[in-house]
Amino acid sequence: MIYGYIRVSSQKQSVEHQEYEIKQYALRKGIKIDSWIEETISSRKALKHRKLGQLLDELQENDVIIACEISRLGRSLLEVMGILETCLAKNCQIITIKEGFHLGNDIQSQVLAFAFGLSAQIERNLISQRTKMSLDNLKSSGRRLGRPFGAESKKLKLSKNTKRIRDLLDKKVPKAQIARIMGVQKITLRRFIKRMGWSD
Fold first, then answer.
1. Residue 44: which residues within 8 A CB-CB, separation 6 or more?
2. Cα dihedral 104/100/94/102 (nearest 10)
3. What is the average pLDDT score of the chain?
4. Residue 67: beta bridge partners?
């Protein structure tokens, strides 16, 4: 099967241009598009929620996917590399018209796949380095990292009951009883008290 794959990221964009490019390519190469896969969806959507993800699951040996350009397949090099690896593992081909990529089970494709893989590894390392640098900069500026806490924090399970818990503690109510009142484990209450900086 030969699939023509078209993706636009908004309703304002038209599939006609991509369809025309793929049809012209097929005409030049003397091939017939057996099925069209069209979707209007952002590439930020997880692959499993896209028609392309379903197509990858259903691919059979020697199937071909033709797209106008490689950016239609995924939002990042890492995602595109994963798609290419899936196709190569199934002995299928991916053709992108703009870049002239023709990836199949041949030495040229394997070299290109290696180059993609190397680039993907470099991208992973760069992302990791940028993340580490950002965290280091936040630490050096005195910003607290991780889960926020304090009297105003809404992310702590018990923060909405801060005043009530403080009142119960002041009244010398046992922590085990306070935990039951709050519907939490005693250790959860102890951690909350510690985070609040109250004497345990």
1. 75
2. -10
3. 81
4. 5, 96
Kindly report the CA angle at 92 between 89 and 95, in degrees rounded to 5?
125
Please give the C-alpha separations between residue 122 and each of 77, 86, 90, 105, 132, in angstroms, as whole numbers: 10, 20, 26, 24, 15
What are the strands, taking DSSP E only, across the chain? 2-8, 35-40, 64-67, 93-96, 101-103
Residues contacting residue 173 through CB under 8 Å, at least 6 positions apart: none
Give every strand in the sheet of 35-40, ordered side by side: 35-40, 2-8, 64-67, 93-96, 101-103
> Which of the residues are catalytic?
9
Q: Place 184 in a pLDDT band, splitting at 50, 70 and 90.
A: confident
Sort strands 93-96 and 64-67 into parallel, antiparallel or unpaired: parallel
What is the residue whose two structure tokens read 């793929």?
A: 22
In angstroms, the CA 22 to CA 148 distance is 51
Query: Which stretches does DSSP call E strand in 98-192?
Result: 101-103
